[in-house]
Amino acid sequence: MRGIGLRKMVIQSKMPNAAKLNRPVLAALIITIVGSSWYIVAHQDSTPSLADDFWTVYHDEATTEVRTAAFRRLIAVGNEQWEGANLSGVDLTDQQLVDVNIQNAQMDQVILRGAVLKGADLRGTTLNASDLSDVDLSNAKLDEISFLRSTLDGANFASAGLRKASLEQVFATGSIFQGADLSESYCLMADFTGSNFQDANFTYSHLEAAIFTNCELSGVRFDGAILLDADFTDSNWWRATGLNIDLIEDFKFRYSPNTPARQEDYLQWLKESESPCAF
């Protein structure tokens, strides 16, 4: 009996020391659990939901950086509907936005360099003071869009619809407008140097002080267009249609071509136009 009692006393005397040794381990475990739980909660709270992202791109409160991040996340999940969105200032360089709907949106001061928007619908959208260098907007619906003071150098607008569009004071050098409908558009003081307008339609457009230097104008329609002070230096204006007799005579005097290739075609046209069967 005395032996048993002695062993109990030894065991009891050792237990408090064991508990003391385990306290740091227990404390570390508690801290780890609490810290992990806090991180999970904080991480969940800091990740915007899709609803948050939609709210961001349709309201004015967000900064440009926040709006760009929200828009890119929505692109990543396959959203293609942006009608009426506020995308001003977003950076969409090289983004693939084929066939998206961005009608009646605010997109002033956006960066769309190298972006692909084939077949996109941007009717009624404002893209003022924006950078659309090398953007692909072929076959896009762009009626009543505004590109006021934007950079469109190297952009592709082949077969795009640009009726009543505003391209005032744009820089669109080396761009492609082949087959585009620019009827009733406003292109005052636009710089189209070196661009291709083959078979484009400028019927009833405002082209005052526009620069068409070295442009391809075969088959372009200028019926009813206002061409006051427009510059056609080294372009093949004689292959366009819709120019009245007074303009043709004025252009013969002011814009006879200087390059050999243009000169050859111009002389051929003069010969054809002076033929009794020309008309």
Summarize the structure.
With about 280 residues, this protein is mainly α.
Give me the strand/helix succession. Answer: HHHHH
Shape: elongated
Uncertain runs:
36-44
Q: Helix fraction? A: 25-40%
SS elements, strand count:
0
- How far apart, in Å, are the first and last alpha carbons? 136 Å
Measured by DSSP, the beta-strand proportion falls in under 5%
Contiguous helical run count: 5
Going by helix content, strand content and strand pairing, the class is mainly alpha
Average pLDDT for all residues: 87
Our Rg estimate from Cα atoms comes to 34 Å
Largest sheet: none
Task: Compile the SSE list and pairings.
Layout: H1 2-46, H2 50-57, H3 64-76, H4 245-254, H5 260-274
Describe the structure.
The chain is built from 5 helices and no strands. The chain is mainly alpha-helical and 279 residues long.
Question: Which keywords apply here?
Answer:
279 residues, mainly alpha, 5 helices
